[in-house]
Design goal:
Number of helices: 6
Strand order of the largest sheet: 1-7-8-4-3-5
CATH topology: Chemotaxis protein chec
CATH superfamily: Transcriptional regulator MraZ domain
Radius of gyration: 16 Å
Strand content: 25-35%
Amino acid sequence: MFQGSSALTLDAKGRINFPAKHRDVLQDKAGARLTLTRHPDGCLLVYPRPQWEIKRKQIAEFPMSARALQRLMLGNAQDVEIDGAGRVLIAPELRQAAGLTREVMLLGMGEHFELWDAAELARREAQDLEAGLSAVLDQFSF
């Protein structure tokens, strides 16, 4: 299970250094192979390849009414590998789609990660907190 956040810097070539705390797990579980794709919220999803294969099948089986979501997620999926220096290259079209600038945040979300532009994530979190989370909190106890 991946959790926590990591502040990362996108280099001039569009690469991030994947956090060392996750690299060993990803090497063991996925051979350092990842799949990146778009998320409807505006971030990128980062899946270890075996987990992506499960999700890919689920998405492919969506009804025709979900064609836009299939197009977004399957049509933009790109396979990448963590290189020997621990870096992951993010394609220009995915960087542009997610509005990634130099400062990015990687969030562990259980079986996958979300990759956000840092400023956009801060704006989104503030907006979500302002709107309130009462419906979700009604079903959760701390």
